[in-house]
Design brief:
The protein is an all-alpha fold and 261 residues long. It contains 13 helices and 2 strands; from the N terminus they run αββαααααααααααα. A two-stranded antiparallel sheet has the order 1-2. α12 packs antiparallel against α13. It is found in: Cell membrane. Keywords: Cell membrane, Membrane, Transmembrane, Transmembrane helix, Transport. Belongs to the binding-protein-dependent transport system permease family.
Length: 261
């Protein structure tokens, strides 16, 4: 139905009227659509690689260095953000990053660093939200990687040790290649989640300052539920759907070409 409504002028209270490609043409002149795409892409390029690498490295450390109670403690601590609602996480971090009275600025003040307007500065707001998203997501992907590590044959590491391979070499030439299918899953899920980001941004910045943190889903929300342009919102949603599909196909081809399947 979204595809159909994208070709109509639809305001919920009135029946949809077919207008062809007008909604798609309107995107070219929309002052919010381009920033929304740009911010969503930047957010994705920041969060996906960082949370993928961090979750893999931490999972490897927990599997090889920290076991027993210590390992269980770290796994539990890192998974707490995952089970917390995004709205709660956004609200807590909004207070922590506050310019006045925020715990982050208070800590920086102890070492002589002045107050930083993390969420109010145009060039810092999106990065700040991205860091919070990484903090929340790492625990989820860590568990996936940890489960994958349990399936890597221990004999491979034992043989590598006999050949004199260092822990770093074992990680790069055994762990990373063995977990390529897991990495494909993690990157695909991370990309989809990043393109769908809404509640964290809405809670922390509301899309501001200006258009600094507005995302595609937030732009869809504003068009559909604040301006009641459901047809136009459907067109943007359909474009978002196509972008995610294309990226997923490209990722699959890249990992298939590298022996990821």
């Amino acid at each position: 139905m979204t595809g159909y409504f994208s070709f109509t002028e639809y305001s919920v209270l009135k029946p949809p009227v077919w207008i062809g490609l007008d909604n798609y043409k309107s995107m070219a002149g929309d002052p919010f659509f381009r920033p929304a795409i740009r911010n969503t892409v930047i957010y994705t390029l920041v969060t996906v690689p960082v949370q993928t690498v961090l979750s893999l490295v931490i999972a490897n450390l927990l599997a090889s260095r920290f076991r027993g109670r210590v390992g269980n403690f770290f796994k539990s601590a890192l998974f707490i953000p995952v089970i917390s609602s995004m709205v709660l996480v956004g609200t807590v971090w909004k207070f922590m990053l506050a310019t006045e009275g925020g715990i982050i600025n208070n800590i920086l003040g102890l070492v002589g660093i002045g107050k930083v307007n993390w969420l109010g500065r145009y060039n810092l707001a999106l990065i700040s939200v991205s860091i919070v998203a990484i903090w929340k997501n790492v625990g989820y992907f860590l568990v996936i990687y940890y489960a994958g590590l349990m399936d890597v044959p221990k004999s491979l590491y034992e043989a590598a040790k006999v050949d004199g391979a260092s822990p770093l070499q074992q990680f790069l030439y055994i762990t990373v290649p063995a977990l390529k299918p897991i990495t494909y899953l993690v990157i695909t899920l991370g990309t989809i989640w990043s393109f769908q980001v809404f509640d964290l941004v809405y809670t922390m910045t509301g899309g501001g300052p200006g258009t600094a943190t507005i995302t595609m889903v937030m732009s869809i929300y504003q068009s559909g539920f604040k301006q009641y342009k459901m047809g136009y919102a459907s067109a943007m949603a359909f474009v978002l759907f196509l972008i995610v599909i294309v990226i997923s196909i490209l990722q699959k081809k890249v990992f298939s070409g590298k022996g990821g399947e």
